Amino acid sequence: MTTYMDPVLFKAAEAGDIDPFENYPTCLDQLLTPDENTILHVYLGNESREPESTYFVDKILERCPPLLFQANKKGEIPLHLAARYGHSNVVKVLIDHAKARPTDPESGVTEAKKMLRMANEEQDTALHEAARSNQAQVVEILTKEDPQFSYSANVHGETPLYIAAAFTGLSIWSEGRREVVDGILGNCISVDYGGPNGRTALHAAIRVGDHETARKLLEKEKKLMKTTDENGWSPLHYAAYYFRSTRVLLENDASAAYIAETEKKRTALHIAAIQGNINAMKEIVSGCPACCELVDNRGWNALHYALASKDIEVFEKCMEIPELARLGMKKDEKGNTPLHLIAALAHENKLWNIVLSFSYKIRGLNKQKLSVDDISEGHFGEIQVINPL
Fold first, then answer.
1. pLDDT per residue over 119-174, tens digit each?
2. Do 139 and 130 contact (CB within 8 A), yes or no?
3. Fold of 1-116
4. Is a pLDDT exceeding 80 seen at residue 232?
5. Do the Cβ atoms of 127 and 139 come closer than 8 Å?
6. Residue 91: exposure state from Cβ atoms within 10 A (0-12, 13-18, ≥19)
7. pTM value?
8. How far is CA 86 from CA 12, 75, 81, 334, in A?
9. CATH topology of 1-116 equal to that of 122-227?
10. Residue-wise over 335-357: b if at least 16 C-beta within 10 A, else e?
11. Which residues, 6 or more positions from 73, have their beta carbon under 8 angstroms from its beta carbon?
12. Which residue ranges run through the membrane (predicted)?
């Protein structure tokens, strides 16, 4: 029968009271909760106070050194908890205790580095925990202690750098998040930029609108600009979709505007158009005007996509951009020009008739032999104007 930690001892551990453990007759590593938390886990997991003093941790480890590496049911050692809750003084003490141990003669890896690299059941190291909790000071300590180690992704595909870049906490914590990014980029010799579903830390930074972090990432690793996720979306696609500034990306490499996604072959310009993101469209066209020639897997150009937004103002703004205005007579695979789509839209919203009246009335036919006038008169054929996202 399993015997769990006595409530009196649990409360003592939680409060950091060393007295009950000074002359405890049983090995302290046998004092466990149902989740197999040791007295150090209990102490470090008490969020109601910050253990600035390291006295309790020092004394407990002197009495029972194995607790340094003893994990709970989730595979968490004390360092995981100290990193999560930002107990930087305790992190230093834990590392010092590990350094005092002899180095493994076979691997040549010090006990301190072995501890820093230990992962829990979700393959999170202490650095993952510190990054997730926005603990910049702890990140600085951990990365300086083991700069050669490349912290790989956990079971969710998240690396510490990705976690930091994707952080979406309160705005008052933003500076701390950037310090976490700086700590990893500045101290780690070999950095893993990866994230879930093929995304990178740059995708994450763009998604949350942190252009300063995006710039730092590109300074460190330029190839991130053209790294696509599992859907073929580049960071520029993300900027277009989430209404983020595309300037920092285009200044780095404007040719990213040529990248088309895997299946539907949409470029960032197509995404900006369907989203009605006029600023992004202007910046993309200005940085890479030739990308306007690219079409998706149906032959749709950016002007077709602007019309699919069904927003008259978006279309009118597009027509003010010469490179986009010239797409008005370009046909898709079914032979439909953007004007064919306007004619179809006019049956949903009569205001499109006004737009159509000021547009070029080309007499060209689509592959069903329907002209713009035919569609205006109600002969639709197979034409549909639907949101392609």
1. 999 999 999 999 999 999 999 999 999 999 999 999 999 999 999 999 875 455 56
2. yes
3. 1.25.40
4. yes
5. yes
6. buried
7. 0.88
8. 22, 19, 8, 60
9. yes
10. bbbbbbbbbbbbeeeeebeebbe
11. 35, 36
12. none
Residues 131, 120: Cα–Cα separation, whole Å: 15
Task: Choose the weakest-confidence range: 299-308, 316-325, 344-353, 365-374.
Answer: 365-374
What are the residue boundaries of the structural domains of the chain, listed by start? 1-116, 122-227
Q: Distance between CA atoms of 90 and 110, rounded to whole angstroms?
A: 19
How far is Cα 303 from Cα 318, in angstroms, rounded to an integer? 7
The set of residues, in sequence order, having a beta carbon less than 8 Å from that of 290 and lying 6+ positions away, is none
- Tell me phi and psi for residue 67, to 5 degrees: -65, -20
Q: Which residue has the tokens 């202007």?
A: 282
Architecture in CATH for domain 122-227: Alpha Horseshoe (1.25)
CB 27 within 8 A of CB 64: yes
Radius of gyration of the chain, Cα coordinates, nearest whole angstrom = 29
What's at 301, amino acid-wise?
N
Q: What's the CA gap between 384 and 344, in Å, rounded?
A: 7
CB-based contact 183:139 (threshold 8 Å): yes
Count of CB atoms situated within 10 Å of the CB of 299: 15
The mean pLDDT value for 207-233 works out to 96
CA angle 45-51-52, nearest 5°? Answer: 155
